[in-house]
User: What shape does this take?
Amino acid sequence: MRVLITGANGFVGNYLVKRLLEKGYTVGILELARRDFFTEKQVKQYIIDILDCSAVQSCMIDFQPDSVIHLAAQSNVDVAWNKAALTASVNVVGTINVMNALNTVNPTGKFINIGSGDEYGITAKTNSLLNEGMPCLPQNPYAISKFCAEQIILKLGKKQKIKIISTRSFNHFGPYQKRGFVVSDFSSQIAAINKGMQRPVITVGDLSAERDFLYVEDVVDAYIKLLEQDVEPGIYNVASGRAISIKHILDLLLKISESNIEVLVDERKYRPVEIKSFAGDNSKIIMATQWEIKGCLEDDLKTTLEYWYKVMGE
Assistant: This one.
């Protein structure tokens, strides 16, 4: 099978390309990805702007994919607030461009769009597991753009009889994830302290929020299951099915590190939690694909922390 991946230079994209190559797929990517995971000779590489319709079309014609996994997005929430037009263009128009290009070249192909659990927004105030049938009430320009893209391509797919799979993927973590996310932020600070690069204090805000966390390898497993199996078009949560407090994540990392680190609450970072619990129901994807979550939270946090020890030692 020939699989084209957009956003291959991102955190999950690198893991996904590596796994598909190991499984014997012919892989094309739209951006340069890390060479830590594979060599450039192993993939067909295109460096294009997904807002350039003709470039996307040319890429599709050249590669002739059986399926596309669309990861490319403007996913930084702060950037989305400051550059809402850019975010909407990349996340909505870019997604439509890629989907239409696949349809032109291979109308029987599968288009897997990677969306976000943030699409549910304040619906999570119910404090129950979020399922695909619940309304989406996104609360920031990034989440709104992902929901808009999802809804447009699902409607176009139904009209044009294209097989559209769209995920709502919740928080994930692992080695190579950049700072700016809970696990990578805590892990990088603990590693810096361990290496003597930072005083043994971590300042935090409110740690009571509960969120849904998945290890990156489990996320990749879910995407491959959706790729390989004949599932019904539609929306699928990629979630752990449980809410874990931010405090529990930090406590586990501190336990693993065996370091004497003081945790101080910084009033400047402390904001009341509007949504206490935000987690997804994963029963639909499990029923459709027999996907299994293989990771162990403590082991996966240890692997992530060890990665940051290595980074800080370089």
In short: The radius of gyration is 20 Å.
